[in-house]
Design brief:
The longest helix has 20 residues, at 44-63. It is built from five helices and no strands. Helix 1 packs across helix 5 (92-102). The protein has one domain. Helix content is 52%, strand content 0%. Residues 72-81 have a biased composition (Basic and acidic residues).
C-alpha cells in the first residue's frame, strides 16, 4: 500500500504530522481543545465582542464624567489561570512533542 511505512498499519512521520495538524484545525476536536486549553471555546467572534463590550462601557464611563469605577474587560479563561495568554497556533513539531509528552505517540516517531 502506497504511503505506508514498513509494518502493519504504521504511517510515516510526515503523514502522521499532517493528520495531527488536520485534527488540531477542527475547533470541535478533542485535540484542539486539549492544545488550546481553556481558550478553546473563545473564537475570533467572541474575542471581538469582548473588545466591543469594553469600548462601549469605556465610552459610557467617559460620557458620565468618569464617575464610578473604570470598566474592566471580561476576563479570559487562561489569563485568570496563568497570567499569560495561550499560544496562538502551535507548529507541527510542537504538537507532535505535546502528543509524545501525553503518551499518545511513541517517542521515536
Amino acid at each position: 500500500m502506497a504511503g505506508q511505512a514498513s509494518g502493519a498499519g504504521r504511517l510515516p512521520t510526515g503523514e502522521l504530522r499532517n493528520l495531527i495538524n488536520g485534527l488540531a484545525a477542527y475547533e470541535d476536536s478533542l485535540l484542539h481543545r486539549r492544545l488550546r486549553g481553556p481558550m478553546a471555546a473563545w473564537d475570533m467572534q467572541s474575542l471581538l465582542l469582548r473588545r466591543i463590550d469594553l469600548h462601549l462601557a469605556g465610552a459610557n464611563w467617559q460620557r458620565s464624567g468618569g464617575k464610578g469605577q473604570r470598566p474592566k474587560p471580561v476576563e479570559l479563561p487562561d489569563k485568570a489561570r496563568t497570567g499569560k495568554p495561550a499560544p496562538s497556533k502551535a507548529s507541527g513539531d510542537e504538537i507532535a512533542q505535546r502528543l509524545r509528552n501525553l503518551g499518545l505517540i511513541p517517542a521515536g516517531a
